[in-house]
Amino acid sequence: MDKWSWAKRSVGVALLLSISGCGNISNIQSFSTPYSEPASGQTARLRVVTDGMARGVPGRDCVDWRVPGAGVMAVVQSGFANRNGQSLGMPASDLMVAGVALARTELKVPGNQPFAVSYQNKAASCRSTFSFTPKSGQDYELILIDSDSCVTSLQKLNPGAKSTWQTTQKASLCNAMDAF
What we know:
By secondary structure, the protein is of the alpha+beta class. The chain has one helix at 3-32, and strands at residues 43-50, 52-58, 71-75, 103-110, 115-121, 127-132, 139-146, 150-157, 164-165, 169-170. Strand 7 (139-146) and strand 8 (150-157) form a beta hairpin.
């Protein structure tokens, strides 16, 4: 191989690495940045219960870790950013999973706007990304666990009445380059 061929390949590899690095850096930051609640505007309350890591992206129906406020909501492992144990005084949950460590938190999320969620269990064998649009002033409970299968359960909590199941939509990456 002559020196010009080697130089062209080196430039091509460097360009590829620099482009792919943009997505990787934002993905890494998404593990070390806690989710930030909206400072103003309409909000809903969201209780997150997980046996892995739950991350949120406000105002999006796709996953983009560059969005202001995006980050870790709750995680069972130490060493990551989290909002574990925060309470907003939501109605009590009766969820109990025997023998499984769970992280719980209650957070404000933007109301009447899409909200994307990314979940993975500790072994990274169970992953799920989806979005939903919480209604302003409502309370929701999101259960993300690996119980022989990936379980994603979202309920709107109705005080004095039965909770209602909420639908979610599959969420993909907002920027295809974030996969690299």
